[in-house]
Every structure is written in structure tokens, then in C-alpha cells.
């Protein structure tokens, strides 16, 4: 390994375009939206294959919720085109609404009703028969582990239970595409992980498509097949979580040595590396790949340098987010790489 060599751009892989050649559940070209002089969306393009989880990241005010509102027919774009479930969002809004479910940032449940009554109300709104509505409600209460609380007023529910019920209500109409706008806002870590598992199961068991907006970067890392970063109304990066992490420099292998002699010898062997005499460590630039790690180990194995420990450090989505957002001219993924991701 040449420590001075730049970290390579992520190579296209089988996961670069989630869903392979599946049809697009959601697509958009040149979406724009302004409120007065404030440009909220400045010409974004999207293609989200069926049966995948897509995460849209961005700071407050970046345009995430506006994107969801346009695609779910709640508001209209000033320019551009979008299709959801094979239907154009402005010309065939009713058809789009029949195919989608939307869960907002705050649980849209009626606290004066029981969990079962909330679900039955949704069944009535979807024009299900009384028998079918009761069957659907019972099925969803069981799936979301709310059966024991079915006859309790929702006002007594914890935040996690309310969010589960909110998602269950979204599923009454059996949507094929679900928009989740910051679905775990305000939840404790345990409840958040329960929601993650429910979301994964929706895709794995039923093949639905999830459009997720979130400010929890771990959430996107855990769930999403494909991620886009939105800043100042523009998409500044797209890819899998691993591809986005590789865009950010700073990955390294950190090796700790037994004494100053071994540290000095290793520093001479590895060349361009950051040496810390106090901690007896050497930080060797690396892209975090197995090949890079093996190269470091091979050098250590074939010399008399004694290493006490070795750890691999790679940028995470926090680093990606902080590097790519908050600047008008944020670095973007090269066009060729974006093309490989679609």
C-alpha cells in the first residue's frame, strides 16, 4: 500500500442502484419550489426503485418536508415533473393518493379514541366493509404488538406506542409506497429501534417502498438502501451509506506500539502517516478496505516492528453530513458516480 496515494472514489457495486433494474416507485426531474424569494427546492432529480428504502437527509430548512409534500400531492411544485406509483402527481393526484401512505413528524392519532377505534376510523375512510375493517384492525394491532392496548384510550399511550399506532393507521389502506417524514422524532433509543424493525419488515415481508426523511444519521445508516443529502434546495450527494462515507477523507488505521523504538521504525516504513509520540501511535491513511488493512498487517508481519493494537477508523454519516451541508457550494458526487447509482 502506498500511504501517500489518495483515497479512491467508491467503485460501482451491485448495491449502487438499489433494486437493480426494478421499476421506479418514485421519480422526479427538476423539482423546484419557492416561497416568495426563498428557494426551497432548486431543481432536484430522484429515482427510487420499488421495494427499497430511500433516505433523504438534510439540515432544518433544507427542503425535505417540502419534497415529501410535493410527492404526496399535498402541495404542487413550481416546476419539474414527478411520478409516484406510475402516476403523475399533479395530473393524476387521486391515483397517487390511493397508492401511498404518509406518516408525518407528529403522530396523527386521536387521543380520545382507543387504538382499535383509530384503526376502524381509518378503515371507514378507506371505504372498507365493517367486517374487512375489523379484520384489518385486528391484523395490524397484532403485527404492531398493540393487541393488549387495543381498547385503551390513545391519550394514555407512550410516545413509542403512539408512533406505532400512527404507522399502523397508515397501513390500513395497504399502500405500496409509504412516506415517513422523520418518523422517530422524540422517541427514546429503544422505541426508535422497534420502529426500525417494523420498517424493515414492511419492505422485507410486503415489498413496499419507503421514502424516509430523518435527521438521525444512524437511522439512515441502519435502514436505507440509498441515501441522498439535500442542502440549500439541492441534492449535494447520493449513494449507499458506504459510498457516501468514502467521499470524506480522514479514514485511517491506528496502530499502537510497545515503545518509541518500534514507533520510530514503523514511521520510517509507512512514510506519510501521523505520529503521536505520547500515545505511541501511528495513524496510517486508509480507505477502510480489507485490502488496505491487509497491506498494513503484511508490513507488520514481515518486519520486526512490534505492534500492541490496531484499530480501523472510517468516516461515518455524521462526517458526511457535516462536510457536505451548510455551504452554498457543497461538494457533489461526480456525475459519473451518480449515473452508476441510478
Describe this structure in words.
- The protein is of the alpha/beta class and 342 residues long.
- It folds into two domains: 24-246, Rossmann fold (3-Layer(aba) Sandwich), CATH 3.40.50.300; 252-313.
- It contains twelve helices and 14 strands.
- It has helices spanning 64-71, 93-99, 115-125, 130-143, 159-170, 189-206, 217-223, 241-246, 260-270, 290-301, 317-324, 335-340; strands spanning 24-35, 38-49, 53-57, 79-84, 87-88, 100-103, 177-181, 209-213, 226-231, 234-239, 252-257, 274-276, 281-285, 307-313.
- The strands form three sheets. Strands 6-7-8-3-9-10 form a six-stranded mixed beta sheet, sandwiched between helices. A four-stranded antiparallel beta sheet has the order 2-1-4-5, with helices on one face. Strands 12-13-11-14 form a four-stranded antiparallel beta sheet, covered by helices on one side.
- A hairpin with a 2-residue loop joins strand 4 (79-84) and strand 5.
- Helix 5 runs parallel beside helix 6 (189-206).
- The protein is elongated and about 80 Å long.
Amino acid at each position: 500500500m502506498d500511504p501517500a496515494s489518495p483515497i479512491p472514489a467508491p467503485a460501482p457495486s451491485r448495491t449502487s442502484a438499489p433494486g437493480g433494474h426494478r421499476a421506479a416507485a418514485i421519480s422526479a426531474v427538476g423539482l423546484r419550489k419557492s416561497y416568495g424569494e426563498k428557494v426551497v427546492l432548486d431543481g432536484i432529480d430522484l429515482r427510487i426503485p420499488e421495494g427499497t428504502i430511500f433516505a433523504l437527509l438534510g439540515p432544518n430548512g433544507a427542503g425535505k418536508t417540502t419534497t415529501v409534500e410535493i410527492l404526496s400531492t399535498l402541495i404542487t411544485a413550481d416546476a419539474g415533473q414527478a411520478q409516484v406509483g406510475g402516476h403523475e402527481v399533479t395530473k393524476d393526484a387521486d391515483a397517487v393518493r390511493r397508492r401511498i401512505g404518509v406518516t408525518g413528524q407528529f403522530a396523527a392519532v386521536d387521543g380520545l379514541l382507543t387504538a382499535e377505534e383509530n384503526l376502524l376510523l381509518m378503515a371507514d375512510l378507506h371505504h372498507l366493509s365493517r367486517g374487512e375493517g375489523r379484520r384489518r384492525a385486528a391484523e395490524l394491532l397484532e403485527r404492531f404488538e398493540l393487541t393488549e392496548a387495543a381498547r385503551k384510550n390513545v391519550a394514555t399511550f407512550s410516545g413509542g406506542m403512539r408512533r406505532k399506532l400512527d404507522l399502523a393507521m397508515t397501513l390500513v389502506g395497504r399502500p405500496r409506497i409509504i412516506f415517513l417524514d422523520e418518523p422517530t422524532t422524540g422517541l427514546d433509543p429503544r422505541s426508535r429501534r422497534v420502529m426500525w424493525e417494523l420498517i424493515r419488515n414492511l419492505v422485507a415481508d410486503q415489498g413496499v417502498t419507503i421514502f424516509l426523511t430523518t435527521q438521525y444519521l444512524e437511522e439512515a445508516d441502519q435502514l436505507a438502501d440509498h441515501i441522498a443529502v439535500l442542502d440549500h434546495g439541492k441534492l449535494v450527494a447520493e449513494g449507499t451509506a458506504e459510498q457516501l462515507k468514502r467521499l470524506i477523507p480522514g479514514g485511517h488505521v491506528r496502530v499502537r506500539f510497545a515503545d518509541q523504538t518500534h514507533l520510530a521504525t514503523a514511521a520510517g516504513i509507512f512514510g506519510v502517516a501521523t505520529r503521536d509520540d505520547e500515545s505511541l501511535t501511528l495513524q496510517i491513511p486508509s480507505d477502510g478496505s480489507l485490502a488496505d488493512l491487509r497491506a498494513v498487517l503484511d508490513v507488520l508481519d514481515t518486519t520486526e516492528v512490534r505492534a500492541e493494537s490496531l484499530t480501523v477508523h472510517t468516516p461515518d454519516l455524521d462526517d458526511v453530513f457535516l462536510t457536505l451541508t451548510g455551504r452554498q457550494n457543497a461538494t457533489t458526487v461526480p456525475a459519473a458516480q451518480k449515473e452508476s447509482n441510478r
